[in-house]
Structures are given as structure tokens and as C-alpha cells.
Amino acid sequence: MAAPEFEVIVIGSGFGGLCAGVRLKQAGIDNFVILEKDKDFGGTWWVNTYPGCAVDIPSHLYSFSFAPNARWTRRFAGQDELLAYTRSVVRDFGLAPHLRLGTAFDGAQFDEEGGYWLVRTSAGALTTRSVISAPGALSRAAMPALPGLDGFAGASFHSSRWDHAVDLRGKRVAVIGNGASAIQFIPRIAPLVAQLDVYQRTPQWIMPRPDRMIGPRERALLARVAPLRLAYRALNYLLYESRAPLFLYTPRLLALPQWVARRHLARQIADPLLRRQLTPAYKMGCKRVLMANDFYPALTRPNVQLVTDSISQVGASAIATAGGAERAADVIIFATGFEVERVLNAVDVRGRAGKRMFADSLEAYKGCTVAGFPNYFTIVGPNTGLGHSSMIYMIEAAVNYAVDAIKTIRARKLLSVEVKEEAQRAWNDKLRRRLRGGVWSSGCKNWYLDGQGRNYAIWPGFTFAYRWATRRFDSENYTLR
Questions:
Q1: Which residue would you say has higher pLDDT here, 440 or 198?
Q2: Which Pfam families match (predicted)?
């Protein structure tokens, strides 16, 4: 039988896919392609173009350790700078020839005899020895099934697919949701529209956003003095890493940041009724903690109304709520988040004996490999998400682990490596024990929990603990063929 066409196929061209491409090239592996379903690369930062789109982790931390950028103009960079950063990574590391844009990943089947994957794409079938899957956790928009939405006569779109052809000036706009994206774009569109109704299901914990400009002199100094740049990155890392114990080990200490958030709310919202509507009733950290300085003031504008009643019906030009009110709307913008759980099993991936990936449970070994699926590596897989620090750190750790496994396959001339079921079980049993008592399971509804109430998303600990766990490919926990 002929050898597979590629040594590695990488799925996705966001930070995970680009990191995989760089590390593969640095390992001397050039026979790979990066599949991207969209017409251009960049993942989240190419897709999300809504007004005010920006990162919520310091820019110097939200970048690869092997590609430091001293030219960030803000402490929390905007979408344009982040997309430009991905452009520089592709250019500086020669990834352009490996990109296949406009090529969607449609599924895969493992060939047990040959020890390779048959990958189905929108451009045809490909074969590869290994797969690195990095589609991004926030890549599938969640759209609520609202009665009557099909009959709405105006424009409607999800914030992650912002329709820039829709002119919002002078329009009556309904924003459904008040999460991480909404609190960024609402202050930008509020001055433009005639009326803005913000439909809130659950209030969010919102902290002050310590953003600032990074001036040209400071940028030049960081560019010239590498130790200073490293120290600045390390300081940011330690600052954000210090938040992990609050969510996992000592949730009682959350009283202090909750006080800061309440004080932030009280300073910006004078109306006691509005302040009460915006005060969360759940423990901080159970949902994603947000940061904003201009969201609360936007809600106090005379043309902005916070609506806390649930939506009962969407009409041709209005939205009716359970309380009996009907509010006119020309445009509906959905800020309803993402189907993170479905991203993991949205595509039909079949391993040994036709087993479908994540069909029964959202569990993996070190978030990277799954028993029954040889040579298949997931980046930002189950229980590798964070609520306190930069996902780029976790992405690099997972990619290094996957590439080390692929190097082992090459060096030992193996057909496949597959994690043992007992190793996967022991890993997940340990995760479950560590997640008990964490703030994520304290009672609120969040996307960290699956349909059975199990936390499939969050890494229960420090990021450096995950980096240590994935520091090398532990072949002793794998079946080598």
C-alpha cells in the first residue's frame, strides 16, 4: 500500500493551527497542510469583526513565546492588531505554502491496516499519517430558537458574523445577550442607533478593564531590550496565574474581587433598580468574568433600555416578552455565545472499529488524545480551557505534546500511537476529583458543563501544571504499533 499523502494534516488556522504549523516546521516536518474552512486564515480574529472587538488578556501574554511582539499599541489589543499578528507569524515562519483556504474539514476515518487517516474535505479526500485538530472552541455560533424569528422582516445576525452592510444609524436595534462580545460592541453602537434594547438573561460579573495605550517610546524599549520584554510578559503571567486558586482552591477569597465588581457597578450606575438588575446572584467565576469600563455607562443612555423579561415571540418588526410588552425592532443582533460542546463532536470522526469521537463522553487524555483514535491530536480539547489566564500558553503546551508524539512516530518508524484506555480513565478520574468544589460547579448555568452537568471544559489548576504534564510524549501510556 502507498504511503499516505501527508505526514500531518492540521485542522484550523487560528492560534492553535498556526502554532502547530510552526512547531512542525521547527521539528523538520514539512509534509503537512493546514485546512481552513474560511476564505482567509486567522481563526477568531479573522471571523470576529464586530465594533470594539478586542482581547481580554494582556496582549504581551496573548502571543506565542516563540514569536514575541513588542509593537502592541494597547495593553489589550484590538482585533486588527491581533489579525496582523497572525499575518506576521505566517510570514515569518513560512506557513503560507501549507495553507489550504476555503477548505472545510468534513470528517475522517482511520484505516486500521494502514495506520493512517482518510480525511474528507470540501475539496476532496486526503490521506495523512496524523491529524492535529485545532478548530477553535469559539467557532460555532449559538443561535436561540426564538418563536417567530423566521418571520422577522429586518436584518439579523450573530455578533461573530457581523454584517457590516447593515447601517445601524437611526435604527431600532435589539441585542440579545450580554456576554463577552456584547459588552464590547454595545458601547460602540449605542451612540449611533435610535433605540437600543439589551435583552439580558443573566447579569454578568464585570470588573474594571485596566487598558491603556502603549506609547512609541515604551514599544521601542521593549523591542530593543529583550530581558525587559520577557520580564514584562512574566509579570503579566504571574498576575493572571495568581487568580487560579480563587476559582479552585479558595473560593471564599472571591469576596474581594466581587466587592471590586460591585463597587465598579455602583460607581457607574446610579439608578438603584438598574443596579439591582445588573447584580449577579451567583458566585464570581461560575461564568466567565468580564472586564469593561464603558458598558455600564452605555446602559444609562436615554436611548438604551435593559430588558430582563424573557422573549416570548418575535414578530415582523417587534419582539414580545413574557411580561406582555412589545418592543419595536429593525435589527436583531445575537450576542448569544458559542456551542462549545458541539465543536468537539460536530464533525464525524471515526476511529478504530468505526467508533465516533466524543459520541459517548467529552473526555480525552491530557486534552490531546482519545482511546480508539490513533495518531489524532486535539488542541484545546476537553478540560484544557481557562477562566483565569491566556489560552495561548495552553495551546503551546498541547501542540508541543502532539508534535513530540509525531516525532516519536517518525523516529521509531511506527504506524500509530494510541492512548491506553486505563491511562485516559485515570487522567479523567483525577480531573473530576480536582474539579469538585470548584466555583464552576457552584450552581449557575454555564458552557463549562455538558448535558449531564459534568465539567468538560475547564483545566482545574495552574497552567504551568498542564505544561509540566505535557512536557514530553509519554509513550509508556500508549499502545505503539
A1: 198
A2: Pyr_redox_3
The pLDDT of residue 138 is 65
CATH class of 149-210+244-334: alpha beta
CA distance 392 to 388: 12
Q: Provide the pLDDT for residue 273.
A: 97
pLDDT band at 381 (very low <50, low <70, confident <90, very high): very high
pTM of the model: 0.94
| Residues 287-333 pLDDT 10s | 889 999 999 999 999 999 999 999 999 999 999 999 889 999 999 99
pLDDT per position as a tens digit, 50-98: 999 999 999 999 999 999 999 999 999 999 999 999 999 999 999 999 9
Q: Which residue has the cell 495506520?
A: 115
pLDDT value, residue 343: 63
Q: To 5 degrees, how large is the angle CA 447–CA 453–CA 456?
A: 60
- Side-chain-side CA neighbours of 319 within 13 Å: the count stands at 24
Mean pLDDT of the chain: 93
Question: Which residue spans of the chain are classified as CATH 3.50.50.60?
Answer: 6-140+339-480, 149-210+244-334
Give me the CATH code for the 6-140+339-480 domain, please. Answer: 3.50.50.60
Per-residue burial over 48-73, b = 16 or more CB atoms within 10 Å of its CB, e = otherwise: bebbbbbbbbbbbbbbbeeebbbbbe
Cβ–Cβ < 8 Å for 98, 236: no
Question: Left, alpha or beta for 149 (phi > 0: left; psi -120 to 50: alpha)?
Answer: alpha
